[in-house]
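Lab manual, section 2.4: Encoding a predicted structure.

Procedure: take the sequence of the chain (366 residues), apply the prediction step described in section 2.3, and record the output as structure tokens. A sample record is shown.
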Amino acid sequence: MKIGIPKEIKNNENRVGMTPAGVFELIKNNHTVYVQKDAGFGSGFFDQDYKDVGATILETIEEVYTSSDMIVKVKEPIAEEYPLIKSHHVVFTYFHFASSEALTKAMLKSEAVCIAYETVEDIDGTLPLLTPMSEVAGRMAIQQGAKYLEKPIKGRGVLLGGVPGVPPGKVLVLGAGTVGIQAAKMAAGLGAHVTIMDINMKQLRYVNDVMPNHVVTEFSSEFNIRKRIKDHDLIVGGVLLKGAKAPNLITRDMLKEMRPGTVIVDVAVDQGGCVETSKPTTHEEPTYIIDDVVHYCVANMPGAVPYTSTLALTNVTLPYVLRLANQGWKKACENDKMLAKGLNVVNGKIVYQEIAEAFNWSVDAV
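Recorded output:
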């Protein structure tokens, strides 16, 4: 199969779809790999690294798409890429369709096969291709939140870990999944007081067992959220509904109940956000302020640490890329029902129910 690795063109996205090590494995399996010039540069991988393992370097993104049967990316295609995607393409990347009607319509129009990293499942229901980026984003949420709590950038002026004689800052984490647990772990490591909320009692019991005593669990409800936002300094939104739009757990009116300079880091923004006032931002302009509350809503947080992120992503995507390349997408998905759950749009039709529901489209079309 001919596999293309284009350069990511989303704002400040420095990751690349495949490391040279991953390309080596594909070529070893008798596939042809086209890599766009400088595609890996932002992640610390150079054209010569890809040439050394047998890849062909192409100058433009148009050449990569034209030459390839399967496109392996990191982030969803943006408007400039829509015309490049054709009916013969298999596109394997993060899509997050439920948060973008324009992207969904464009991929339906292309009639390509769109397989989303974020909906591929393991037998136990976990999301193996989303997990490593959720781990990165969860840890970064505290790193960024701690920075934006500083007064020069309009935060409350709170040091999360406190100092002797001064209480530590308070962190509220919404969601006890991968993002939430990693955020809680990082915040606890800094010495902050952490409250983590979820509606899954089994997950809360797990958190209670593995976290230190200054991480407390609480059942998630509107009443409890309203109570906690009044005195917590940093709020991390880490709620995920597989393939669907994230629920708004914090509404616009709740911002007035927060103290000025409170920071919200909405990691769920690429699925629409779990805060009503969230809107996607970029690494260039990561924050905005509403009602004196600082919002950090960068939709590709792991793109800020591309070397770590690209290695972590290739570790988990490569086996699936090999399967798709070796068997073709139809046979690969027939043989692997967990991979088949990654199918979102196929030949002009939505095949993942939550996407249709996100736009109130007829489920009959699924």
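Check your result against the sample. The domain at 2-119+305-365 is CATH 3.40.50.720 (Rossmann fold).
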